[in-house]
């Protein structure tokens, strides 16, 4: 049994399917080829699976995946460097913990009352 919203959505999908020139598979192939034409655009593996072109999709996505993994590693290293710098600042006494998990610098401590 379909609800009111689902029923109206089904009508919308039927209208959309009727407007496709080459059917659903043709539309999937068109979108897949469109994304395959752009070297910086990620190819949908679901479309590749439908068309049975997984090897082409994986080959296209490999450099994009490598670039994303490299960016992720760089961000992770930056976060780690910030964390280490913060720990060193705490150890040298430039930053203190207020006992509630927050941190404050010496300047802030001189001008504000810190409740413990």
Describe this entry's structure for a reader.
The chain is mostly helical and 116 residues long. The protein has one domain (4-111). Helix content is 71%, strand content 5%. It is built from five helices and two strands. It has a two-stranded antiparallel ribbon. Helix 2 crosses helix 3 and helix 3 runs antiparallel to helix 4 (54-92).
List keywords for this structure.
116 residues; mainly alpha; 5 helices; 71% helix; elongated
How would you summarize this macromolecular structure in one to three sentences?
The protein has 116 residues and is mostly helical.
The residue ranges in which pLDDT falls below 50 over 5 or more consecutive positions are none
- Number of structurally distinct domains: 1
SSE series: HHHHEEH
Helix content bin: over 70%
Mean pLDDT: 77
Helical stretch tally: 5
Largest beta sheet: strand ordering: 1-2
State the end-to-end distance: 61 Å
Protein topology:
Elements: H1 4-18, H2 23-37, H3 45-51, H4 54-92, E1 95-97, E2 103-105, H5 106-111
Helix pairs in contact: 2-3, 3-4
């Amino acid at each position: 049994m379909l609800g009111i919203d689902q029923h109206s959505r089904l009508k919308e999908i039927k209208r959309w399917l009727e407007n496709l020139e080459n059917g659903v598979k043709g539309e999937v192939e068109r979108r897949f080829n469109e994304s395959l034409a752009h070297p910086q655009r990620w190819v949908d593996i679901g479309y590749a699976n439908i068309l049975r072109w997984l090897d082409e999709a994986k080959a296209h996505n490999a450099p994009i995946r490598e670039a994303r993994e490299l960016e992720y590693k760089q961000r992770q290293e930056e976060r780690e460097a910030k964390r280490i710098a913060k720990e060193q600042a705490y150890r040298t006494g430039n930053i203190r913990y207020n006992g509630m998990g927050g941190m404050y610098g010496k300047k802030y401590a001189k001008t504000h009352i810190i409740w413990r």
